[in-house]
Amino acid sequence: MINKLLLLTGLLAVALSVQAQENSGDVSYSETKSSKTAFHTLTFDVGPAWITSKMYTPSGKYTWRTGLELGAEYSCVFSKGYGFGITYLRNHTNYPDANVDLNYIGPSFVYAGNFSEKWRAMAEIGLGYGNINDGSGWQSGFGTKYTAGVEYMLSDKLGVCVKLRNMAVYFGKQDSDYPGDDDDLNGISRLALQLGLCIHL
Fold first, then answer.
1. Residue spans of beta strands (DSSP E) within 14-80
2. CA 123 to CA 95: how far, in whole Å?
3. Range 58-64 average pLDDT
4. Secondary structure of residue 31 in the 3-state scheme
5. Do 130 and 141 form a contact (C-beta atoms < 8 A)?
6. d(CA 176, CA 83)
């Protein structure tokens, strides 16, 4: 619950900062590139991720276990700051007696814009498909994704970004309980802090 509140607060802060910049009359990213009607970006990121929901293994119950996450994303943002994207995420987490692999892919709604000449903020809300394997087999379900982040523009074509991302996969009603999932959540929840490279096409 705490990680979702952090992400929702970040999303709100991004939206308010970009909107305030537009209302102040300062030059925005889209205005400086008025010849374009859409901005296409490829982002590749990596960083630590924590499975925040309970995971059950033969050796016990675990929460906030640290793993590694890789991500790839394409986004298209129009001149008003709104747009869409598609994201692929892969997370790997080691436990004493199990390795957990988590995948997610899905589209997202994107809101982004510059709040200074070099700094750009973005927020994303996505729905998609996720699956998990803890060594006992694959289980799949409906996934949600919330992301808030900032990017520093190295040039018109290249930038570096930091993102805070929450992703959850819900397995739904099952005939038999999946051994590793959180009984209360009926799925798995994960929080990640990512450092990325942004390529503006």
1. 38-51, 55-57, 60-62, 65-78
2. 32
3. 78
4. helix
5. yes
6. 40
The pLDDT score that the predictor gives to residue 27 is 41
Beta bridge partners of 17: none
CA 105 to chain centre: 11
pLDDT value at residue 173 = 61
In the chain, how many H helices and how many E strands? 2, 10
Q: Residue 151 phi/psi, 5° resolution?
A: -130, 140
Mind spelling out the 3-state secondary structure of the chain? CHHHHHHHHHHHHHHHHHHHHHHHCCCCHHHHCCCCCEEEEEEEEEEEEEECCCEEECCEEECCEEEEEEEEEEEEEECCCEEEEEEEEEEEEEECCEEEEEEEEEEEEEEEEECCCCEEEEEEEEEEEEEEECCCCEEEEEEEEEEEEEEEECCCCEEEEEEEEEEEEECCCCCCCCCCCECCCCEEEEEEEEEEEEEEC
pLDDT tens digits, one per residue of 115-173 = 888 999 999 999 999 998 877 778 889 999 999 999 999 998 999 999 999 999 988 76
Q: Is the pLDDT of residue 20 over 70?
A: no
